[in-house]
Design a protein that fits this description.
The complex is a heterodimer of chains A (274) and B (529). Chain A is an all-alpha fold and 274 residues long. Chain A has ten helices and no strands. The radius of gyration of chain B is 26 Å and the shape is globular. Classes of the chains: A mainly alpha (274), B alpha+beta (529).
Chain lengths: 274, 529
């Protein structure tokens, strides 16, 4: 048997993580209606084969509710991280290529957003946009782009000194064309890894904002809501309401981290051939 | 070897900490005095603005006896009126002048005598500054002599004695902006210590003019539901509020007390079709605007099932905002009848479609039912209503909202409310037309308004009770099932407490809305076995 090398291992790890996350997202979406069903004839049941994660005080199936909650978190995470990274890319490139003033303004904005405590800004933005799904997505999107924007900006600053860029400049290629045609392909790997590593952040922040009651309304299945509701029942010995959803949330975040890390390994020239 | 010593010292320190904890617990148990009691209330019960009646102490949404201050009147066990400071109350024929004679033997705890001047000062002050109660019916209060005070009214207000029961009398000579945190009164207790966010300690007023105070020291601690339960389990409190969710637990040395209340839950049904007002807010609801639909909803919900499902049986069926009060009209009572509900919906044109849900002209029968997002009991009630109405073919969605938007949204969408006060004025606030519609949900009925106006200008309380009842149902119109039914009332929730088995609490009057200070209304008469 041929020995599995590191690269294949990483590819497998990456695919497994993505597959698992996709499974959660899809199954959660399929069951989204069922996650809202309340049935008082089956309330407060401990975990069993029929109800893997037990049921809560409204007789909701916590397994389905957790799946749906996580899939909602992942969707919010995807949307928010994607929007966030687009902002980061645009601002990063603008800052590095459009001259001193643009750079000063963008750096100032980055410092401003970074200067306000994350969760506070998130709550403010979500609240201003009327909470709910929209509020959370906009909130997460508008607060998570800063570090990626910094990375891209410094990367672009380096690139600007590269001979092929200098050559393009001398040949009279427009600034926009240089940014799009010559810089973006070079930045893509950083961008992609940054994007994926932003997911766990976004998901955790979505969970914390709904936990604090500034996100979705409580009948919605969201992982933060599930966890904040479960707190009340811990004293009554209903541990399953907190433990399983909590573990699954941690698992999901770790999986995203694994996916992001393995992707970085695959794309990073220094580790790509190990 | 070093490692071993490290582990050993860790183990020893852990042991020490544990033993320190357990001995502290033991101490708490030993120190139980026979004339003191520790009561746990919810964190929201801590009076934010202190003990100033103008800013909500005893008054407002959550009424209770102010303990520190005396009031002119008190409500009795059956919610009629008795005297506290007052010895005689007279009203003029036109209802515009109330003359109250007060006791001559009452002193504030700083030694000053309580006179009619203080009473007049209190009422003129709350009229100016009260942030929780409406005093527009009072023109001014005047002290005629040391023991007589006259209230000049702007309009007849027959239920003034109920207002007098919630205004604690403050001393004119010691009232300032910080009165809330340094209250002086003439009531049963003196506020000794207030650790904000934690506890308040009361001590009996040695010069109290009324019955002897048995419980000399009352400590009220504020904690969340789960913390209160943990405190009960640890034996740290003598009486603690709790919720139905904890009711099935067993705690050694404690019993579960359930007190009936008029703390009701129900939802409003906008009675007009949907329009948009000048500010762009939606007003009215196309589904609930039909009176047949409202009747079907009222009769189609099995209240008993809701109480069993949501409150584990700790509640009573509610049919009005004022069940069991002297001004309650029992005509509001109905039996759940799902067949009749289905017939009413058919009659209204909502026919059952292929999927079992009702529809009319291609529109599905249903509405969005709101609840305050922080209230899990109301959320559960909404979920139960949703399930029950689904059986009737009505598609209800539920949504948790914050109070910042709830009031406006309730004008077009039903909201799960909680009410229940010790005054008939609540009927007025909910059902009486202000401008073109009632305040909290679009509704207006001239006859109902007229009865309530007449009730306010009645010459006696007894007469007013009858008129308040007629406002609910006079035989032809009203707010009950056969009338306009603009609100549906589902349940009065029992107020639950864990109580030390050796503690004997005095009989409670029907608790109003708010699971808080009502329990200690008569803490002075509690005793230990």
């Amino acid at each position: 048997m041929r020995k599995i090398n590191g690269r294949i291992m990483t590819v497998m790890l990456f695919s497994a993580a993505i597959l698992f996350l996709a499974a959660i997202t899809i199954s959660g979406s399929i069951f989204s209606d069922e996650a809202m069903i309340t049935d008082f004839s089956r309330k407060n049941l401990a975990p069993s084969l029929q109800y893997l994660f037990g049921t809560d005080w409204l007789g909701r199936d916590m397994f389905i509710r957790t799946l749906t909650g996580l899939s909602m978190s992942i969707k919010i995470g995807l949307l928010a991280a994607f929007a966030s990274s687009i902002i980061a890319l645009a601002l990063g490139i603008i800052s590095a290529t459009m001259g001193k003033t643009a750079d000063a303004i963008v750096t100032w904005i980055i410092d401003l957003v970074m200067g306000i405590p994350h969760i506070l800004l998130l709550i403010l933005i979500s609240y201003a946009f009327g909470k709910g799904f929209k509020g959370v997505v906009i909130g997460v999107a508008l607060t998570h782009w800063t570090s990626l924007a910094r990375v891209i900006r410094s990367e672009v600053l380096q690139l600007k000194e590269a001979t092929y860029i200098k050559a393009a400049q001398k040949l009279g290629v427009s600034k926009f064309e240089i940014a799009w045609k010559h810089m973006f392909p070079h930045l893509f790997s950083q961008f992609l890894v940054g994007l994926i590593l932003m997911f766990p952040h976004a998901i955790l922040h979505e969970a914390s904002i709904t936990f604090l009651g500034f996100g979705l309304s409580p009948e919605q299945p969201a992982i933060g809501i599930i966890l904040s509701e479960s707190m009340k029942y811990l004293a009554m010995g209903r541990w399953w309401l907190a433990v399983f959803p909590g573990l699954l949330l941690v698992g999901t975040v770790i999986l995203f981290d694994v996916a992001g890390e393995s992707l970085r390994k695959l794309l990073d020239p220094s580790s790509a051939h190990k | 070897m070093k490692k071993f010593i490290k582990v050993l010292s860790l183990a020893v320190s852990a042991l020490l900490i544990f033993s320190a904890c357990s001995s502290a617990e033991k101490n708490a148990e030993v120190q139980k005095d026979t004339d003191s009691v520790i009561v746990a209330m919810g964190t929201s019960s801590e009076p934010e603005a202190g003990f100033d009646p103008a800013y909500g102490w005893g008054a407002g949404e959550h009424v209770h006896e102010p303990l520190i201050q005396s009031t002119l009147t008190v409500t009795t066990k059956d919610l009629k009126i008795d005297y506290d400071l007052a010895t005689d109350i007279k009203t003029s024929d036109d209802g515009l002048l109330w003359t109250v004679v007060i006791r001559d033997d009452v002193f504030f705890t700083d030694g000053e005598k309580l006179t009619a001047e203080d009473v007049a000062f209190t009422y003129n002050t709350v009229k100016e500054t009260s942030s929780v109660n409406d005093f527009t019916m009072l023109d001014k209060a005047v002290a005629v002599d040391d023991t007589t005070v006259e209230f000049y009214m702007t309009k007849p207000y027959s239920i003034w004695p109920y207002t007098m029961a919630i205004v604690g009398i403050v001393p004119e000579h010691a009232y300032s902006a910080d009165y809330g945190s340094n209250p002086i009164g003439s009531g049963r207790y003196i506020m000794k210590q207030w650790d904000k966010g934690q506890q308040i300690i009361f001590e009996a007023n040695p010069d109290y003019y009324g019955d002897e105070i048995k419980m000399k020291k009352v400590t009220v601690v504020f904690m969340d539901e789960d913390a209160a339960f943990a405190a009960v389990k640890a034996g740290q409190v003598d009486l603690a509020y709790t919720a139905a969710a904890y009711a099935e637990q067993n705690v050694k040395g404690y019993e579960l007390l359930a007190f009936e209340s008029v703390d009701n839950r129900g939802f409003n049904l906008p009675t007009v079709k949907e329009t948009t007002d000048a500010d762009g807010n939606k007003i009215g609801n196309n589904f609930t605007s039909n009176v047949l639909v409202r009747r079907a909803l009222n009769i189609g919900i099995d209240r008993e099932q809701t109480i069993l499902n949501v409150m584990d049986g700790y509640g009573t069926k509610a049919y009005s905002v004022c069940d069991k009060m002297p001004w309650y009209n029992a005509e509001a009572e109905i039996e759940c009848d799902k067949d009749e509900a289905a017939r009413l919906l058919d009659e209204a044109g909502w026919k059952t479609g292929a999927d079992g849900m009702r529809e009319k002209d291609g529109i599905k029968a249903g509405f969005n039912l709101l609840y305050p997002a922080s209230d899990s009991l109301r959320q559960a009630m909404c979920a139960d209503v949703q399930n029950q109405l689904k059986e009737l073919g009505i598609d209800v969605t539920i949504e948790g909202v914050g109070w910042d938007t709830a009031y406006t949204r309730a004008l077009s969408e039903p909201l799960m409310w909680g009410w229940g006060a010790h005054t008939p004025m609540e009927l007025y606030n909910i059902y009486h037309t202000v401008g073109s519609s009632a305040e909290y949900s679009p509704y207006s009925n001239e006859t109902v308004d007229r009865y309530m106006d007449e009730a306010l200008s009645a010459s006696s309380l007894e007469e007013s009770y009858e008129l308040w009842q007629k406002a609910q149902w006079d035989g032809t119109t009203g707010i009950t099932q056969e009338g306009d039914i603009p609100w549906i009332w589902l349940a009065n929730i029992d107020h639950l407490y864990w109580s030390d088995v050796n503690l004997t609490g005095a009989e409670q009057k029907l608790h109003p809305h708010g699971h808080g200070w009502s329990i200690v209304n008569n803490v002075d008469q509690w005793s230990w076995k």
